[in-house]
Amino acid sequence: MEEIRIRDSFIKLGQALKLAGLVDSGVDAKYVIQDGKVRVNGETEYQRGKKLYPGDIFSYQGQDVKVS
Question: Which residues partner with 67 through β-bridges?
Fold first, then answer.
């Protein structure tokens, strides 16, 4: 499982997708999230601004990424 480290107390889902290298831009993140292709902690997530905290896991295209 891949891991991304954040400096603040949270990171927004769209930013996390970009940081992990799973999408190229914020626009790409917006569309894959809107299309229901991203899961957070096992649940489909539709909000690009969803706050992720250390310990959360998000998934896209079979790739799981843990926030730490």
Answer: 4
Q: What global pTM score does this model have?
A: 0.94
- Rounded CA gap, 65 and 22, in Å? 10
pLDDT per residue rounded down to tens, the chain (68 residues): 999 999 999 999 999 999 999 999 999 999 999 999 999 999 999 999 999 999 999 999 999 999 99
Can you spell out the DSSP letters for 1-68? -EEE--SSS-EEHHHHHHHTTSSSSHHHHHHHHHTT-EEETTEE---TT-EE-TT-EEEETTEEEEE-
